[in-house]
């Protein structure tokens, strides 16, 4: 037969290159599913990095609203000079969490003003309604607050008045008003007039148009980007932020729940992490705290995946350790978190959840102990957590770290130990160049199926590390798409996967690449976002083997493929990456008892070149394009675009 083909080629004058264009045959074993895809499979990793929370998804527009930053005037400007004592910062130990407040005192005639610059300015929208609020005390009856929003050129684009009650005790005041023009870099003026002195705190400005219209809530456009992904889980609050530069700076969930004005802020560790990207005004105010994270998870239909400090500070920084005999507080935090999320409203922490507005449990099913921790010190501490958690909450799966790298001595050491400990889920991280992602597409093909499940907890293809900024190019995204065929093929083992980090603010980032970029008004998804979204919105329920000559399609001729069947929708979904600079023909042979509908759908994601990207100005430069495909029977031939990611969706009848 081969001879005949060669003869024909000779006779017709076809070149050797043409042989490569004859369709590559892929067989899809639809009737031999290999296992189930976890409903949590594709999720999101949230960390307050790159102004992800404060200055980002948390819609507060005022920076340093409670004067608690290390430099209490950061973000603020006095609009009227005062005498000594005109602006006094008092530190009241009786106040929970937020100790400082501002006393304004200008003799008998109070006529003072403050300006807040926002986080790299404030994004406000024409015709949007905004709510100014504050806490105040010691006011007299004739006191007024005049609020102004100015655009970049100092034009007045919104204003309101607020008459204060006469009060000796702390009270809340608020006023809503419309802004008439859009500005990405607006600022807020707050003028105080009246007689006597006035104490103020928590000066705040929020848009009313937040996610789900929640008062003082989250930026709607940013949450929408997450909701659109239909993520299976949301990991929070990080990342290295869990560990802290030192233990004092670690993330402590208990300090992030309860009344917002009582949540004690801390410096954000990304404030000083990278010398070339210092962000001195980066703090965690915890307006977005653990309650809000759980709520967000619920809103977007994602399983909550909290990661807790294991008694170790970041080993790239101080590496401080809690002595083993003093771990109780840390372990108790984990146990209490389960009560906060799932406990009855009769319990201490369950009651707090109910008091905050959510009597129903949050359905917590897994907890991460430690982020990127390593060494025997980690294993010792993890063992203490595991014992306590397994005893009290055997229903909660434990996620444990395999360190910072997906290979090497540290990884091998941890991997062995975690398997020996029968940890439920191992968290693997890989920030690597595109070539690594391509060559690792079969990483999980031969992993032990009897041991722990895998959580690809943080990954991103980095094109220009370490000298950064790592650009979110089509090259990076396509290499991730190729690698993810391997995750999907092994979804019986790989339970969850999330790109990291999630958000980057164009004026305030520390780490790049990121999945989604924002400025004060806009948001766009990178090519990697488009890839993640295509996977998560097409995750299916059953893993379907797709083979070339009996082997997984994992890089030969730069082709990568995986397939799933979606029981609910009744459709086969095939994902193929063509990492060639030329089109490639594939023929799909699907021997099955199932009957296919006549028309399917093809979704193609491709960039003009590997350097192509999306941006604020061209947010959809790379976006999926859909086409119907008609076919007969269970065979079809497709031409794959150069450097493309293609989804073929075939409904069954
Ligand atoms: O995603 C950014 C950082 O990368 C995370 O905080 C950390 O876990 C990892 O090193």
Number of helices: 11
What would you report as the Rg, rounded to the nearest angstrom?
A: 28 Å
Task: Note the beta-strand portion.
Answer: 25-35%
- Total count of strands: 34
Q: What's the number of structural domains? A: 3
Q: What is the residue-averaged pLDDT?
A: 94
Top CATH class of the largest domain: Alpha Beta
CATH architect. name of the largest domain: Alpha-Beta Barrel
Quick one: biggest sheet? 9 strands, antiparallel
Distance between the termini: 37 Å
Q: Show unreliable segments.
A: 1-19
Helix content range of the residues, please?
10-25%
Structure, described:
With 653 residues, this protein is an alpha+beta fold. The chain folds into three domains: 22-37 and 544-651, Immunoglobulin-like; 44-59 and 211-539, TIM Barrel, CATH 3.20.20; 76-207, Galactose-binding domain-like (Jelly Rolls), CATH 2.60.120.260. The strands form six sheets. Strands 4, 5, 6, 7, 8, 9, 10, 11 and 12 form a nine-stranded antiparallel beta sheet that branches. The protein has an eight-stranded parallel beta sheet with strand order 3-13-16-17-18-19-20-21. Helix 8 (409-420) links the parallel strand 18 and strand 19 (425-432). The longest helix has 18 residues, at 375-392. The model is unreliable at 1-19 (pLDDT under 50). The protein binds alpha-L-arabinofuranose (AHR). Alpha-L-arabinofuranose is lined by residues 47, 49, 238-240, 371-372, 404, 458, 500-501, 511.
């Amino acid at each position: 037969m081969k001879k005949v083909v060669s003869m024909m080629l000779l006779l017709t004058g076809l070149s050797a290159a043409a042989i490569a264009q004859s369709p590559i045959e892929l067989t899809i074993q639809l009737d031999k599913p290999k296992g189930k895809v976890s409903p949590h499979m594709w999720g999101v990793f949230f960390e307050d990095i790159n102004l992800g929370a404060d200055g980002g998804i948390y819609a507060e527009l005022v920076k340093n609203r409670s004067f608690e930053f290390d430099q209490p005037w950061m973000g603020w400007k006095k609009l009227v000079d005062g005498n000594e004592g005109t602006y006094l910062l008092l530190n009241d130990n009786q106040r929970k969490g937020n100790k400082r407040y501002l006393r304004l005192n200008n003799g008998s005639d109070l006529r003072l003003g403050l300006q807040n610059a926002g986080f790299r300015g404030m994004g406000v929208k024409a015709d949007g309604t905004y709510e100014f609020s504050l806490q105040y005390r010691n006011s007299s009856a004739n006191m007024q607050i005049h609020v102004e929003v100015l655009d970049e050129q100092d034009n007045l684009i919104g204003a309101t008045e607020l008459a204060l009650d006469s009060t000796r005790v702390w009270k809340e005041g608020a006023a809503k008003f419309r802004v008439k023009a859009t500005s990405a870099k607006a600022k807020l003026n707050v003028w105080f007039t009246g007689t006597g002195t006035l104490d103020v705190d928590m000066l705040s400005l929020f848009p009313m148009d937040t996610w789900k219209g929640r008062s003082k809530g989250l930026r709607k456009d940013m949450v929408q980007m997450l909701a659109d992904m239909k993520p299976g889980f949301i990991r929070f609050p990080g990342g290295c932020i869990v560990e802290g530069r030192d233990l004092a700076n670690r993330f402590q969930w208990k300090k992030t729940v309860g009344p917002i004005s009582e949540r004690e802020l801390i410096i954000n560790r990304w404030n000083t992490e990278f010398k070339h990207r210092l962000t001195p005004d980066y703090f965690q105010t915890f307006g977005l705290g653990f309650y809000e994270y759980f709520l967000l998870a619920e809103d977007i239909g994602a399983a909550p995946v909290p990661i807790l400090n294991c008694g170790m500070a970041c080993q790239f920084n101080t590496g401080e350790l809690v002595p083993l005999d003093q771990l109780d507080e840390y372990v108790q935090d984990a146990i209490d978190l389960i009560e906060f999320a799932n406990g009855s409203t009769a319990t201490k922490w369950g009651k707090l959840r109910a008091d905050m507005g959510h009597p129903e449990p949050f359905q917590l099913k897994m907890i991460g102990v430690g982020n990127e921790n390593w060494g025997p010190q980690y294993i010792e501490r993890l063992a203490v957590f595991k014992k306590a958690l397994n005893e009290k909450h055997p229903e909660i799966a434990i996620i444990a770290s395999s360190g910072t790298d997906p290979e090497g001595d540290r990884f091998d050491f941890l991997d062995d130990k975690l398997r020996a400990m029968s940890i439920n889920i191992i968290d693997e991280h890989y920030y690597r160049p595109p070539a690594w992602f391509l060559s690792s597409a079969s990483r999980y093909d031969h992993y032990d199926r009897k041991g722990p499940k895998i959580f690809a907890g943080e990954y991103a293809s980095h094109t220009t590390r370490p000298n950064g900024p790592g650009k979110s190019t089509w090259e990076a995204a396509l290499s991730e798409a190729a690698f993810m065929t391997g995750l999907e093929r092994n979804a019986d083992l790989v339970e969850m996967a999330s790109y990291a980090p999630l958000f980057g603010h164009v004026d305030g980032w520390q780490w790049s690449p990121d999945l989604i970029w924002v400025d004060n008004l806009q948001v766009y998804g990178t090519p990697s976002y488009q890839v993640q979204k295509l996977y998560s919105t097409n995750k299916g329920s059953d893993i379907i083997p797709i083979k070339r000559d009996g082997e997984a399609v994992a890089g030969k001729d730069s082709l990568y493929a995986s397939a799933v069947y979606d029981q609910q929708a009744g459709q086969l979904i095939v994902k193929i990456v063509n990492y060639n600079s030329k089109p490639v023909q594939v023929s799909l042979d699907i021997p099955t008892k199932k009957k296919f509908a006549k028309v399917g759908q093809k979704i193609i994601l491709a960039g003009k070149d590997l350097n192509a990207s999306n941006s604020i100005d061209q947010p959809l430069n790379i976006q999926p394009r859909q086409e119907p495909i008609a076919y007969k029977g269970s065979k079809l031939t497709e031409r794959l675009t150069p450097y493309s990611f293609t989804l073929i969706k075939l409904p069954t009848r």
